[in-house]
Amino acid sequence: MAGTPDRPRQAAEPRRRERRSRMDTAGLRTDLRAAVPDATAGLAVTALVFWLLYARIRSGESQTLAVMPFLADAGAYWMYWLCQAFGWSGLLWAWITVMLGLLRSTTRPGWSPVPVARIERWHRTTSLTTIGLMFGHAFMFFAELVRANEHGLGWGGRVGRAFVDAFVPGGYATGTGQVAILIGLIAFYLSIPLGLSFYYRATMGPRLWTVLHRFIIVVYVLSVWHTLLYGTNVWFDGAFRTLVWTLQLPVAALFLLRLLAPARRADRLVLGDPAARPPLLPLAARLAGRVAAAAAVVVLLAVTASGRDGGRTPGAQSGDPAVTQGMVWWGLAALLLAIAAVSWAAVRARPRRRSAAGRPPGPGPDPGTAASPPAGQQGAARGAGRRRRDARPHVGQQAADVVGPGEPERR
């Protein structure tokens, strides 16, 4: 019957579009398997940190006791200390994965012993581990709130209240935690779509995925801010708090190097060539980013050298936080607006789909309505086509002539 040979092709098109629109589950499964050793190491570090925190509480050496003396019963509050341990291991893994990502996207010297593909694989596996450790941090805080049940509620009420305090942004409404926990939850919830967007890159396109993934550095900054603001081990000025600041120095320096010498040629800023120079607004944004990164390096050097970051002083009365929940919400709105703007610009900058002949589609006769030539001309055309095909070499012979011996055939 006429038209039946086209039906399988027409039926296959929706299936191909559906496959392109789905998540790269095969790649995710591969990375999850590869992340098992990394996640095991993360849990081992968490257990080590838990033991250290527990021992310091038992001995009375922890600075946390100066902030919350009631936590001196280490056995009763073991869930809280496990929550703290997950937080520190999560921050460490976030530091590792950010450093690997910056190394991957920066121009590498020729003598580097580690291949780019291996760095990228490590970056993906440590990213998955980081998300898991962040969830463990939030979940153990939720479990501790359920156990403590400060409001004397029944099981349904205590679970619901703990869920709001631990997982709903803005739900925790007392003390410094109303700002610090909000910042931590924003970092956690942003890390999931920005981190897992890699597995949707075939759907969204490499350009859109690249600009989205760059915002992951904001997640890391929010995580460090959450730690310095609410971590009871770094509540006061001291050597350990200064160490946390010092560890941000290589991140800021490598981020500045990434901006000055990116691995992708398209990201390099060319000022000498007017033809390659970006428009005024993108140029100003890129220059501002470089200035901000350089300023961050200077500030971190000053904090490391002085040991002072404007934190709390032991024995002194702490004032109200300088940042309020409203400021954080407005900052989140500005961040989401920036993400939407650059995503829209990336989508608009996509090259238009070209036709099979290599030319942009243009006006022309509809193949379904174009007039057919007379039957005599059709027969002559078919005969000429057969003679031309007989005179041409075989397709495999053509391919061998083009690619040469020993080269893969291009299809």
Topology (elements, then pairings):
Blueprint: H1 6-21, H2 25-59, H3 64-67, H4 78-104, H5 116-148, H6 155-167, H7 177-196, H8 201-204, H9 206-213, H10 216-230, H11 239-246, H12 248-260, H13 280-306, H14 325-348, H15 375-391, H16 395-403
Helix pairs in contact: 2-4, 2-5, 4-5, 4-10, 4-12, 5-6, 5-7, 7-10, 9-14, 11-13, 12-13
**Which outline best applies?**
globular
Mean pLDDT: 80
* Major pleated sheet: none
The rounded Rg comes to: 29 Å
Structural class designation? mainly alpha
Summed up, the helix count is 16
Low-confidence stretches: 353-375, 386-411
- The proportion of residues forming helix, as a percent range, comes to 55-70%
Number of strands: 0
- What is the domain total for the residues? 1
How far is it from the N-terminal to the C-terminal residue, by CA? 32 Å
Instruction: Provide the β-strand percentage band.
Output: under 5%
Taken in chain order, the helices and strands follow as: HHHHHHHHHHHHHHHH
Could you explain how this protein is built, in words?
InterPro entries: Fe3_Rdtase_TM_dom. It is found in: Membrane. With 411 residues, this protein is an all-alpha fold. It has one domain (31-312, 323-348). The chain is built from 16 helices and no strands. It has helices at residues 6-21, 25-59, 64-67, 78-104, 116-148, 155-167, 177-196, 201-204, 206-213, 216-230, 239-246, 248-260, 280-306, 325-348, 375-391, 395-403. Helix 4 (78-104) runs antiparallel to helix 5 (116-148), helix 5 (116-148) packs antiparallel against helix 6 and helix 7 (177-196) runs antiparallel to helix 10 (216-230). It starts with 5 loop residues before the first helix and ends in an 8-residue tail after the last helix. Mean pLDDT is 80; it is low at 353-375 and 386-411.
